[in-house]
Design goal:
Distance between the termini: 43 Å
Order of helices and strands: HHHHHHHHHHHHEHEE
Structural class: mainly alpha
Radius of gyration: 20 Å
Largest sheet: 3 strands, antiparallel
Number of helices: 13
Shape: globular
Length: 260
């Protein structure tokens, strides 16, 4: 809601309306991914990519510190575009039941999940080379909060509509296959401090954790979830879906069996 308010207000101020005090605030200024793509220019010249602000750089640092500690919490708890996909997916679940989020064949899915890293590399390189935010021309996140303005390109709006439609069949399709910021944060799952762990000695192998995972991670096959696609949504934990207390949880140490 805050992001939507800032985006709408930024547009209204241009027409002489809105809250002038917040006129300089824009979606670029509060986008942590903006901090990622401006790293090269900041390191080499001490300046930011055009339209970006120091605030996006600070947000990037804060989000990475949080991710190193607890994983991509931004993706699982903060990102409004992720929330939109989940809301649409709820409709898809009612229509397709258990088939929902299982349409994509594994033989394609396992390769498509690395596509977002190619997008991340491409966006970072082109932004560093041109000094401009090139990704906004194809960014559905940007289009979501600017589709009523001339700033949102037709391509970005088209991608937004495709992602919205795909969310009826696949949960978080943008997050799984294309989000460059999710790709950057996902790397922290390899070395994050607090990990999602499964206690194999108390696990019933019921598969409840697998079914609820929006990213289709097979939690029941892991003891330490280090998958680069984990978004730390905590849906698989004993507090949410696992029927055995302390079997799946986020912790610093190895998960211990619960003793009554």
């Amino acid at each position: 809601m805050i992001i939507a308010f800032i985006s709408v207000n930024h547009t209204l101020v241009k027409d002489g309306k809105g809250i002038a005090l917040l006129s300089s605030a824009s979606l670029h200024a509060i986008c942590p991914f903006g901090g990622v793509v401006t790293i090269y220019q900041y390191a080499t010249t001490g300046t930011f990519v055009k339209k970006l602000h120091e605030s996006s750089f600070i947000l990037m640092i804060l989000m990475f510190i949080l991710a190193v500690g607890f994983g991509p919490l931004f993706c699982g708890w903060i990102c409004p575009f992720g929330t939109l996909q989940e809301v649409i997916s709820k409709i898809g679940k009612k229509i397709f039941k258990r088939k929902h989020n299982n349409f994509m064949p594994y033989k394609y899915d396992k390769y498509l999940r690395f596509l977002r890293y190619l997008i991340l590399i491409r966006v970072a390189y082109m932004t560093a080379a041109t000094g401009n935010i090139i990704f906004s021309q194809a960014d559905p996140y940007y289009a979501l909060f600017n589709f009523w303005t001339s700033e949102a390109s037709i391509l970005a709006i088209a991608i937004l509509m495709i992602i919205a439609l795909a969310s009826l069949f696949i949960e978080r399709p943008w997050c799984k296959y294309a989000c460059p910021y999710g790709a950057a944060l996902g790397i922290t799952n390899l070395f994050r401090i607090f990990k999602i762990k499964r206690n194999s000695s108390t696990c019933l192998n019921c598969g409840a954790c697998n079914e609820v995972c929006p990213m289709n991670i097979k939690i029941s096959r892991e003891e330490n979830v280090r998958n680069h696609q984990c978004i730390s949504c905590m849906k698989c934990t004993s507090e949410e879906v696992c029927p055995v207390k302390y079997t799946v949880s986020m912790s610093l140490e190895r998960v211990k069996s619960y003793e009554s």
